[in-house]
Amino acid sequence: MASATEIMDGQDIRRVLRRIAHEVLERNKGAQDLALVGLHTRGVPLAHRLAALIKEIEGVAVPVGELDITEFRDDLALIGPKTGSGETQIPFDLNGRRVVLVDEVLFTGRTVRAAMDALSRRGRPELVQLAVLVDRGHRELPIRPDYVGKNVPTSRKERVTVRLAELDGQDVVVLERG
After folding, report:
1. Euclidean distance between CA atoms 51 and 21, whole angstroms
2. Which residue, among 126, 178, 122, has the nearest Cα to 154 in the 3D structure?
3. What are the sequence ranges of the domains in the chain?
4. Domain covering 11-70+88-155 in this structure, CATH number
5. 137: which residues sit within 8 A by CB, 6+ positions away?
6. Residue 97: phi, psi to the nearest 5?
7. Neighbours of 83 (CB within 10 A)
């Protein structure tokens, strides 16, 4: 029998995104040459929320891009061809920018590896950083986030589900067991 535990509510999500926005600005010494790129699907609204918070804090509009990593996945031979969850839209030059990749959950690191491959096809940023709402561990690749909303130790049998108002009608993070 499956059970679920809410580990973050809407207020928690808003609070950690505000903290991450401050951390991004502090580490990058402001918003100059900064860009956010959200990974489809739920990284995109998170990137837009972070951009809004950065504008509120710093008074600077940071460009936001959207990245579909489907064609860069390393498991396509196992799962078969999939249609992308969204279209890549990066309406700014990546060259020389400080890019923060944004995703909802970091697990094995394979999605982030695919995202870095996809990003490198579109330009050469000065640096790439990673912001995630939840880090659940179990890395299979040497990838570490620069900004983490919440660390949630999990077993491989558990699943972390993020629901966002823009896509799901509510903001909540749930740990599902079973």
Report:
1. 8
2. 178
3. 11-70+88-155
4. 3.40.50.2020
5. 107, 151, 152, 153, 154
6. -85, 155
7. 6
Residue (of 48, 165, 40, 62) closest to 115 by Cα position: 40
Per the DSSP assignment, residues forming a β-bridge with 128 are 99
Tokens read off for 111 = 């999605």
Nearest to 86 by CA among 41, 49, 38: 41
CA gap 65, 99 in Å, rounded? 10
Output the tens digit of pLDDT for each of the chain's 178 residues. 689 999 999 999 999 999 999 999 999 999 999 999 999 999 999 999 999 999 999 999 999 999 999 989 877 666 666 655 689 999 999 999 999 999 999 999 999 999 999 999 999 999 999 999 999 999 999 999 999 999 999 999 999 999 999 999 999 999 999 7
